[in-house]
Amino acid sequence: MISTTLRSDALHETRRINIYLPPNYVNGRHYPAVFMADGENVDGYAALAEQLVRQHRMRPVVIVGAVSGQSGIVEDRAALHIDDLRHADYLPNHPGAGDRFERHLRFFCHELTAYARRTYGVSSRRRDRAVTGASDGGVFALEAGLRCGNQFATAWPMSGGQFEARNRHCPQPKRAS
Fold first, then answer.
1. Which residue of 46, 47, 141, 160 pairs with 133 in a disulfide if CB–CB is 3.0 to 4.6 A?
2. pTM
3. Does residue 67 lie within any of the structural domains?
4. Are 152 and 131 within 8 A, CB to CB?
5. 156: domain CATH number?
6. Are 89 and 58 in contact (CB under 8 A)?
7. 11-46 pLDDT, tens per residue?
């Protein structure tokens, strides 16, 4: 596991990220990748991926996680006066957050993916990339999949509690009479 930081032009702050590299990682080779909201949880998914790769039940994959909330930001962001930075980053239209969600989406979908490609050999092919997250991170994964579909072929939202994305992007179901 590699823990490092990445300066974000979109957010005007330095973000903490965790990266898992698969067994027998070869610098210069291109790897499929899973990009994770709540990157502080990469280690749990990495342990499972490691086992499956070693058993030849899964292709080697890089997992890239952006750590969430204030703990994911190097600088103290209290001056922003946002009650919950994790919610502001992951939920569109979070009260009092202004355009923070949109800027975080730019960081995640463009800056983070470009960094992973340049630094860790993550494939630039859409079909080799997925985005995932749980709870509010699941909402973010769904939003990233819908809004940044040119970056991710797969969105794996887990236990998302907000339905705003579905309501904005999908037609309402017809009711049986």
1. 141
2. 0.89
3. yes
4. yes
5. 3.40.50.1820
6. no
7. 999 999 999 999 999 999 999 999 999 999 999 999
